[in-house]
């Protein structure tokens, strides 16, 4: 769990400020955190970013990154100063063209004081020039930059941005992106969205990517290395670009056999979730030793280990489902992770049914009966699991079980209307578990507070009456008589996605 420790002196200073009349301090510093109780120092207060323009140069041999980041933003309060989340070494910051003063604090805070205070509602342009070696930086005792034999990769949840660009690092502040990366000829730079152009000159190639729909900072990705790139188009007309490290070894064939089905799976998911929300699609597999996959927007990241035992289409289904649930509609706070992971796992259950390897009901029955009442599995509350359990298996499996319980309670007509309507209602915005419950009640016309409390918020196994009411494991007599669906091992093989 990542915690920001507030020094007593800071509390005293805050108390002194409260004693000063508001009229005497018309401007104040932006908060060093956006207010998420799970991660108090993540994100920042006082401004909202609408666009990031990142112009980078990366040297794979030394892991040296230099860049100029331009942030287009708007002040949301009167500001004397504001923070960015960032770890590399900053040479200069300019705010609205004028050089600003800066200092670092905490684990990843870059405190910026503009020459002139900023008025609430005013447009703000911030230019940050920086350089450094991302793999040499840690925050909270870990790194989200993965060094590879031929380069490096930024991909992690709930944070990765601070290792390669300065940002307001929380899903509440989504923005569009232009990412331009200069790398040595023969090396590729992979990012989100659409590849607009590549330009080669004097031994270097610049890769220019654009994400034209709002994107959370942790969903922005950069991978530099030697890749084989494939391109195509989905049946629905979305361009697909996939990238595979040239050094995947025995995992190469299984990776391609899985990820080359990206277009097919996205078209299939659109039947449940509505139109694909972006103008680009794909996936990439760098040569990392990490075990997880991540739903980086439009182009999910997959670890080679996901394909160590053969093709793994289920993990592709999971990460693509996130493009609607988690990316298109992002969480308001990290406690709302169930909307991301419960529905991405449920998409795997729908795929199992599609493949004739176990229905969603059979999978729900199996999850319910295979965990006895004293299993710690039931102590995790998917609707608010806490930062230590945010990616616990229960958030996925108990989370999907809750989705099936909801389906059984309200019926298929309302359920599938919700599956498709939710990504449209909150498209490219943010929403909470409470928002989802209200929306489900609105569509179904049924009160659902008790059901949500039982399946998402109680730290115990729902008893036999609740199971019968949700048509889960009728009789609730335990695992006997409930056979393991054929898809179960394939779904369980994707559990490495939890290891963020």
TrEMBL record:
Transmembrane segments: none annotated. Its EC number is 3.4.11.2. It catalyses: Release of an N-terminal amino acid, Xaa-|-Yaa- from a peptide, amide or arylamide. Xaa is preferably Ala, but may be most amino acids including Pro (slow action). When a terminal hydrophobic residue is followed by a prolyl residue, the two may be released as an intact Xaa-Pro dipeptide. Residues 1-24 form the signal peptide. This is Aminopeptidase N. Belongs to the peptidase M1 family. The keyword Protease applies. It is an enzyme of class 3 (hydrolase). Keywords: Aminopeptidase, Hydrolase, Metal-binding, Metalloprotease, Protease, Signal, Zinc. Its cofactor is Zn(2+). Residues 50-219 form the Aminopeptidase N-like N-terminal domain. GO terms for molecular function: aminopeptidase activity. InterPro entries: Aminopeptidase_N-like_N, Aminopeptidase_N-like_N_sf, Peptidase_M1, Peptidase_M1_aminopeptidases, Peptidase_M1_dom, Peptidase_M4/M1_CTD_sf. Pfam families: Peptidase_M1, Peptidase_M1_N. Gene3D superfamilies: Neutral Protease Domain 2, tricorn interacting facor f3 domain. Residues 310-455 form the Peptidase M1 membrane alanine aminopeptidase domain.
